[in-house]
Structures are given as C-alpha cells and as structure tokens.
Amino acid sequence: MTDFRIVQISDTHLSPSKPFFNANFDRVADWLRQERPDAVFHTGDIALDGADRDEDLAFARAAHDGLGLETAFVPGNHDVGNNAEPGEVVHQGVDATRLDRYQSVFGADRWIRDIGAWRFVGLNSALFGSGLDEEAAQEAFLAEALAAGPGRPVALVLHKPLFLDEPDEAAETGYWYAPRGARRRLVDLIGSADVRLVMSGHIHQQRIRLWRSTAMVWAPAVAFVVPDWNHERLGEKQCGVVDYRFSGDRVSVRTVRVPGTVDHDLGDFEDAYGPLPRTN
C-alpha cells in the first residue's frame, strides 16, 4: 500500500450517564462509515471520566467498535489521569490502577503501526514526567521504535502536544503540554529520527504548524470547544476531525467540519466537569 488515508479524531468525551457530547460523536461516526478511511486514530480523552468511571470507558469502547473500521487509540488525561510538573499536585493523577483499567478496555497504551512507507508510533502522554516505571519503559519503547525503522518517515500519535511553539519555551506545561524534563528527552529522541508528523489533541483547537521539518498537528475536538475566558485562542476553535492523505513518503493534511456537529461551549455544561475557572 503506497497511498492510504487516516482520519484522526480526538476528545470525544463520551459517557452513558452524562451524554452531553455523544450526538457529535454519532455524527462523526456516520461520516466515518461513509468515508471509510483505511484507519482511524483516536488521540485521547475518549471518555468523559474514564479515569474514575468504568462505565464511561466501556461505553466509549463500544461506541468505537460500532464504527466497523480499523481503529487505534492512545489515552488522554480523562482516560488515565493527569501528569504534572515535579512537585505539582493534580486532580486524578495518573497511576498504575488507572493505567490497568484503561488497558483492560482499550488494550496497549503504546503501539507501532507500519502502513505503507510510514511508521506510526502511539504514545501515552499521561506518562510524561509522571515518574512511574512505565514512563521509562515507554521512552525505551520509543527509542527502539525509532531505531528499528530506518528509512521510514515517522508519525507520533499522542494526546498532549509536546510544546506550544518551541521546546525551551517557558509556557505553562503541566496540564496543556509535556512537562519540561520529559519534553527535552522526547525532543532529543525525535531529533535522532525522521519524525515528520506529530498528531495530537487535548487543546480543543485546530492548528497546523511546522517545527523544523516536523508538522505539529493539533486536532480539533469532536465534543466541545473551551471558551476564550478559560483558555486563550491559539488556533481555530471549532469541532471537527483531521483527514490525512498519504502517498509514498508525503502527506497532505486538512481539517474537516463534519455535517451536523455542534460547537458546544464547555462553559455551558457545568455538570460535565464542574464550573470552569476564569483565567483570561
């Protein structure tokens, strides 16, 4: 296979008891079944509260199984818990119990897919800076995945972006981006290979930016947008998906507004995660 198509979906936030955003997923699911890409990659926050609610994880898995398409998942913070900067205390911190629960439903939280000329490496961004044994194991996994695929362009698939604009920036990192210490190690690993694409979600904004020779793609959320008064506007705030067309070692990228989806404002849904703080 030299030419193939992957659709990236992200941040679906599905739940049977808090079904606020399920209809958006249903519209995306209908569109995917019509379009029939070669694979669907989900870049995390699959469930609304999978970190603590088994039923949210199970419901989200069943919804995706209904697509009838080849689908690969990486977890988000709402699936396995949050990471943090050293010394920072976070709500629903990632731990071994939450990781085990996620894996029992969705399988491995890191993986390799070789499709056409490309190697895709899925990573669990909640492990970055966590200090868990699994963090070191994942870094070793990534190093081996990059070393074992010489000559292949590589795409990383993860929930949180590695950084906003530059690896050494002083931007807030613990929640929105990879913590600084882990980021430096990851950037060094990327520099040792032909990483041409990083596919991420989490920010609930769509943005495509070239960093050196790597396209850093933020997928829009399927579920909702975050109001400007809670998180600054860094890209386009609109629900949607990302459509990738690969041909040999080249790729074209476009974001898609799926018909029938609604740009829900999270500020209007306090029953989802509680009142949002005003930060801007």
Provide an overview of this structure.
The protein is α/β, with parallel strands linked by helices. It has one domain (3-273): Metallo-dependent phosphatases (Purple Acid Phosphatase, chain A, domain 2). It has seven helices and 13 strands. The strands form three sheets. The chain has a six-stranded mixed beta sheet, covered by helices on one side. It has a five-stranded mixed beta sheet with strand order 3-2-1-11-12, with no helix packed on it. A two-stranded parallel sheet has the order 10-13. α2 runs parallel beside α4 and α5 (133-147) runs parallel beside α6 (180-191). The protein is globular. The termini are far apart. The mean pLDDT is 94. This is Calcineurin-like phosphoesterase domain-containing protein. It comes from Prosthecodimorpha hirschii. Residues 4-205 form the Calcineurin-like phosphoesterase domain.
Q: What's the pLDDT, averaged over the residues?
A: 94
Shape annotation = globular
Low-confidence stretches: none
State the CATH topology: Purple Acid Phosphatase, chain A, domain 2
Number of strands: 13
Helix-strand sequence: EHEHEHHEEHEHEEEEEEEH
Q: How can the largest sheet be summarized?
A: 6 strands, mixed
Number of domains: 1
CATH architecture: 4-Layer Sandwich
Percent range of helical residues: 25-40%
- The count of helical stretches stands at 7
Q: Roughly how many Å apart are the termini?
A: 48 Å
GO molecular function, one term: hydrolase activity
Organism: Prosthecodimorpha hirschii
InterPro entries: Calcineurin-like_PHP (IPR004843), Metallo-depent_PP-like (IPR029052), STPP_CPPED1 (IPR051918)
Domain Calcineurin-like phosphoesterase: 4-205
